[in-house]
């Protein structure tokens, strides 16, 4: 039997995150959830990421389809200093908590590690507010996130061009039209 699809608005999405975190009442819950979610069933944006030739292209594809799994806009910029991913709620006036921001940073990092086969660490991370981060997370990220008012992570310039071991141009050609259709249905506008 097919499970009925359940949708919530963006504000409820962020409140649900905080409710789950409060109910768990466990330090390091973000890392625990990332490890379960990043190695669980694939979702369209992660397929898009995994099929790319390089980490940089994969992150741009993830940004294109991120709205299919949550009310988060994702920008990817590449400069001489590296590749930076910035995340924010897709609806104006909403904010994301430091905990949710940390989850996003850890999730993207774990996907980058999985798809490159390398133990990558971001060169910098930032959160919208202060959050106590445990030793496992500090080791994983290579240091504490800065508090800058936004959620972001950066990878070294050399990391942006790392090939993905999961790359598949043929698979991507087959999947892309369906992902574009899903995104158009979700947003009501042509995405690209």
What does this structure look like?
- With 192 residues, the protein is α+β, with helices and mostly antiparallel strands.
- Helices cover 48% and strands 14% of the residues.
- It has helices spanning 10-24, 29-38, 44-51, 55-65, 98-116, 135-141, 157-160, 169-187; strands at residues 72-79, 82-89, 124-127, 146-147, 151-155.
- A 5-stranded mixed sheet has the order 1-2-5-3-4.
- The chain starts with 9 loop residues before the first helix and ends in a 5-residue tail after the last helix.
Topology:
Layout: H1 10-24, H2 29-38, H3 44-51, H4 55-65, E1 72-79, E2 82-89, H5 98-116, E3 124-127, H6 135-141, E4 146-147, E5 151-155, H7 157-160, H8 169-187
Parallel strand pairs: 3-4
Antiparallel strand pairs: 1-2, 2-5, 3-5
Summarize the structure.
This protein has 192 residues and is an alpha+beta fold. The protein has helices at residues 10-24, 29-38, 44-51, 55-65, 98-116, 135-141, 157-160, 169-187; strands at residues 72-79, 82-89, 124-127, 146-147, 151-155.
Salient structural properties:
192 residues, alpha+beta, 5-stranded mixed sheet, 8 helices
């Amino acid at each position: 039997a097919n499970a009925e699809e359940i949708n919530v608005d963006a504000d409820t999405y962020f409140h649900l995150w905080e409710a789950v975190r409060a109910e768990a009442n466990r330090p390091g819950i973000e890392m625990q959830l990332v490890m379960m979610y990043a190695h669980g069933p694939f979702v369209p944006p992660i397929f898009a990421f995994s099929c790319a030739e390089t980490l940089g292209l994969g992150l741009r594809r993830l940004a294109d389809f991120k709205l299919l799994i949550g009310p988060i806009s994702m920008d990817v910029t590449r400069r001489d200093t590296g590749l930076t991913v910035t995340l924010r709620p897709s609806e104006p006036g909403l904010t994301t908590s430091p905990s949710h921001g940390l989850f996003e940073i850890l999730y993207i990092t774990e996907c980058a590690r999985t798809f490159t086969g390398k133990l990558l660490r971001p060169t910098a991370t930032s959160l919208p507010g202060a959050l106590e981060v445990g030793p496992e997370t500090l080791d994983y990220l290579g240091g504490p996130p800065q508090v800058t008012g936004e959620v972001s992570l950066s990878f070294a310039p050399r990391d942006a061009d790392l090939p993905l071991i999961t790359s598949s141009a043929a698979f991507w050609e087959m999947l892309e039209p369906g992902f574009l259709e899903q995104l158009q249905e979700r947003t009501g506008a042509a995405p690209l």
